[in-house]
From TrEMBL:
UniProt similarity note: Belongs to the short-chain dehydrogenases/reductases (SDR) family.
The protein's name: SDR family oxidoreductase
Gene source species: Telluria antibiotica
InterPro entries: NAD(P)-bd_dom_sf (IPR036291), Sc_DH/Rdtase_CS (IPR020904), SDR_fam (IPR002347)
This protein's UniProt keywords: Oxidoreductase
Taxonomic path: Bacteria, Pseudomonadati, Pseudomonadota, Betaproteobacteria, Burkholderiales
Length: 261
C-alpha cells in the first residue's frame, strides 16, 4: 500500500526505538522521511536502508530537540530545503527512573523540556502550516504512565499526562481544519527506554513487554483512522481503563510496587 506516495513525514527521535519503526512503516507506504535526532550516524544508516528497501527520499537532520527553539529551527531548515511536512511523528522523549530527589535536577528539567515544551513547539509550528493547507496528520507519543501518578517516574509520568491531555484537546480543535491529531500511549516496550532511564527491567515489565514495531503500527493505524488516542495491547488498555474505577491512592501505590526492582 503506497497511499502516502510523495508526502513527507517527519520522525523525531529517529535514531533508535520507535523512531526507526515509524520511519520504516511510513516509508513502506511511500512517504519520504525526514529523520531528526542528535545522533546522526545511526540515522544516516537508516536513511540508506529506507532508500534501498522502499525507494523513497530521505533527509537527515542532526539536532538537539531538547534545546529551546529547536522546533522552530527545524521547521525553518526544512522549509529552506523545500520540504513540506505532511505527517509529524512527535516521538522524541525519554524517562528518568528513581526517586525524584535522587535525580540531578538538570537532567529532569532537560527531560521536561524535550517531552513537553519541544513537543509543543514542534506541534505548533508544523500544525500552523498544515491548517493553512487544510490537511495533515500529527502523532504524539505519550505513555501509559500518563494515566496515573507513578512513583520513581514522577516527573516523567507527569510529562506524559501533559502530552495525553494536550493531544486529545488538539484532536478536537484541529479536526475541523483538516488536521488529525492522535496520541499513542505505549506500555513498557522493547526499546532503549529502560537503558536510558536507568532502570533494570522488573519481573512485571518482562512479562508485559511488547515489541516496538506492532506498537508503532497500532499508532499509525489509529492516526489514519482518525482516533483521538490509543493504548496498544489489551493488557495496557485494561490497565488504563481500570484506573478510572480505582481510587487514586490505590493507583499510585500499585504503580510504586510494580516499578520497584
Amino acid at each position: 500500500m503506497r497511499d502516502l506516495e510523495g508526502q513527507w513525514a517527519l520522525v523525531t527521535g529517529a535514531s533508535s526505538g520507535f523512531g526507526v519503526d515509524f520511519a520504516h512503516l511510513l516509508a513502506a507506504r511511500g512517504a519520504n522521511v525526514v529523520l531528526a535526532a542528535r545522533s546522526v550516524e545511526p540515522m544516516d544508516k537508516l536513511a540508506i536502508e529506507l532508500q534501498a528497501r522502499h525507494g523513497v527520499r530521505t533527509h537527515v537532520v542532526g539536532i538537539d530537540l531538547a534545546r529551546p527553539g529547536a522546533g522552530t529551527a527545524l521547521h525553518d531548515r526544512l522549509a529552506a530545503a523545500g520540504i513540506t511536512v505532511d505527517v509529524l511523528i512527535n516521538n522524541a522523549g525519554y524517562g528518568v527512573y528513581g526517586e525524584f530527589l535522587s535525580q540531578p535536577l538538570d537532567r529532569t528539567l532537560d527531560m521536561m523540556q524535550l517531552n513537553m515544551l519541544s513537543l509543543t513547539e514542534l506541534t505548533h509550528v508544523f500544525a500552523r502550516a498544515m491548517t493553512a493547507r487544510g490537511r495533515g496528520h500529527i502523532l504524539l507519543v505519550a505513555s501509559i504512565g500518563g494515566y496515573q501518578a507513578t512513583p520513581t517516574y514522577a516527573a516523567y509520568s507527569a510529562t506524559k499526562a501533559y502530552v495525553l491531555l494536550f493531544g486529545e484537546a488538539l484532536h478536537e480543535e484541529l479536526k475541523p481544519r483538516g488536521v488529525t491529531v492522535t496520541v499513542l500511549s505505549p506500555g513498557i516496550t522493547a526499546t532503549r527506554f529502560l537503558d536510558v532511564s536507568g532502570q533494570k527491567p522488573t519481573l512485571y515489565q518482562r512479562l508485559v513487554m511488547m515489541r516496538s514495531r506492532p506498537v508503532a503500527l497500532t499508532g499509525l493505524k489509529a492516526l489514519y483512522s482518525g482516533r483521538a488516542s490509543i493504548v496498544p495491547g489489551w493488557l495496557n488498555a485494561l490497565t488504563a481503563w481500570s484506573n478510572r474505577l480505582m481510587p487514586r491512592v490505590v493507583q499510585r501505590r500499585v504503580a510504586f510496587a510494580l516499578m520497584k526492582n
